[in-house]
Amino acid sequence: MQLKIQKTILLLVAVIISLTLNAKEGMYLPMLLKKINASDMQAMGMRITAEEIYSVNQASLKDAIVHFGGGCTAELVSEKGLLLTNHHCGYRSIQKHSTIEHDYLTDGFWAKSLEEELPNDGLTATILQRMEDVTAQVLAGIKPEMDEKERQELMDKNIKKLTQTDDNSKFHLVEIKAFYYGNQYILMESIVFYDVRLVGSPPSNIGKFGGDTDNWMWPRHTGDFSVFRIYADKDNNPADYSKENTPYKPKKHLKISLQGYQPEDFTMVFGYPGTTQEYLPSAAIQTIVEVVNPFKIDLRRQKLDIMAEQMDKDPKIRIQYSAKYAGVANGWKKWIGENRGIKRLNTIQNKRIEEKEFALWARDHGYGDLIQELNTLYEQLRPYELAASYFFEAGYYQDIIRFAYSFQTVAKFSGKKEIDQEKFQLAVKSLKGSIKGFYKDFDIDVEKNLLNATISAYTKFPETTIPIPSTIAPLKSKNQEEIDEWIDKMFSKSIFADEAKLANFIENYSSGKFKTIQKDPVYQLALSYYQNYFDHIMNPLLNYQSQIDVLMRKYMQAQIEINAGQYLFPDANSTLRVSYGKVENYEPRDGVIYNYFTTLEGIIEKENPEIYDYVVEEKLKQLYISKDYGRYADADGSMHTCFIASNHTSGGNSGSPVLNAEGHLIGLNFDRNWEGTMSDLDYDPNQCRNITVDIRYCLFIIDKFAGAQHLIEEMDIID
Ligand code: ARG
Ligand code: ASP
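Above: inputs. Below: predicted complex with arginine.
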């Protein structure tokens, strides 16, 4: 520690500490709660111990937390592997089981017995067994004078050694994750279940009430939950799907409280936040909010309009595109909120001021011109980041492009004298398997319109030094009709326009037929998109990124050093975290206060039979009229639907249990408020709230609305 600290440094320390001291900001490592947070949490009202939350010696809450499908969180709530997560987390699975005849999206689905529960190919449930700091082992032998390549090679070797176990099966996951941009490494050991079945889902007008209109907003009335079950083999171990599997018996499941909450009550969220970037320098934030977000927001708005128009006209298209639409809309709206929040907080300006102070400190502490170099690199990276966004938003995310490109796995055998038959047959088989699923959710007219929008956007890529894909370069000066003609012509000559033709073609595929694919105009379009990315974008991107990685590691190290004594939480990286805060209202604008909870009353207020997102089921209305809320009513007599609290959450936290001071389940986290979506970059305790669906509303729907009392009986409910 420096003995003589300059005034500026003191100032800087004060700024940073005031930003991070707030107990409500941060997503913490369960294994460090005891050391870092427990006393703070208890001071805020928590009545359980850190050991009860995370322990490797005894069953603890962590044994009930599930990484659901890799992108969401779920929690075990019964001895028979019953899982709760969000409706939007189960959405893909529900959608995949839906057809016009069995429209589970619209009508909901409730298995009456174990036999009726529906398997979901590809869906996984991962449960963490333990985490361990392995920084010293990962960095063993690393010397300051080593160059990055040497350093990385040695680290890779160390990591390989550390992750090797007796059981290297897909059911047992051992991974090492980097924290603080590579200043800390933590080993995560988990078990992975592959037999996860759909048990129940409310209809979309409950599970997705308010739809994409209310998404990212408070006040909210969404019953965003669905029910799944983990199955295990006869020894209670993870297994692939099998009829013989039986419900998994977990080490721990959550108890559910019907007590509700009061303002200022302690809450915590236990789950898997995906990515936050709280420590980025100003130029990086600038790239996100001034360059990349505006482009993505604009193009996605166009895509949404195109899909919405056709979905409104045709119920089949509504089902086909519902999940895709939700995905596009979700990002679109989040980035709008993020941009507003960053502007409101003045984040870029504030970071610049902090960086000036940092620069002074850095020179005296062996960090040289670190921050200037870092910002310069981020500026140089900027056009490539934008180009990558063009490739992803206008290319990769366009389903037909990605699908056509997948045929590259067989086309690449072309011209080869000797073909590895095994590999070739495997590739053919995988394509065969993908055709049906792809066309189930494909409508050629929608796709053509989307393609028109994305091609038009792509041809307007502003950067002159990075070329756009060669196939669409000639369309630069063309108008919409001309692009339409071009697209029509392309599909008229393409095998991808016709599912039956394509299926037949691949059914009888042999290596002699490479040319049909290679010459296919849709395939060529896809190929040119990817080729353009590989040739002109990917390498510079990786190159700048790897230089940035080195500097970010040092910058993070410096930020930790400046804050000596003050724990900085690590950015989210899809590892299990705990965040905590309080049930709190907030003031979105001058003179306006948003209450901390909503009720069924609000659903009735929002009802509009003309608007898809605001249709209210007759049965729900009846329950409202008769006030038949049973034991799920709040002490105030009303049916609470959602509530907000100041827990720091991010994408991936959806489905996470929201727990009270006792560690009992009081709701399922599913969203954030629009005023607070910048929290992935800059957290504001005054404005950032996580949105939770009240567990009592979920149980009310299961019990009173769906009549699935057998599920209620399975759960551990405390009145
Ligand atoms: N905004 C929430 C999250 O980021 C929920 C998204 C799903 N809901 C929707 N209407 N698209 O994932
Ligand atoms: N809705 C998000 C999710 O799906 C949660 C969030 O971003 O707040 O994980």
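The chain is about 45% helix and 15% strand.
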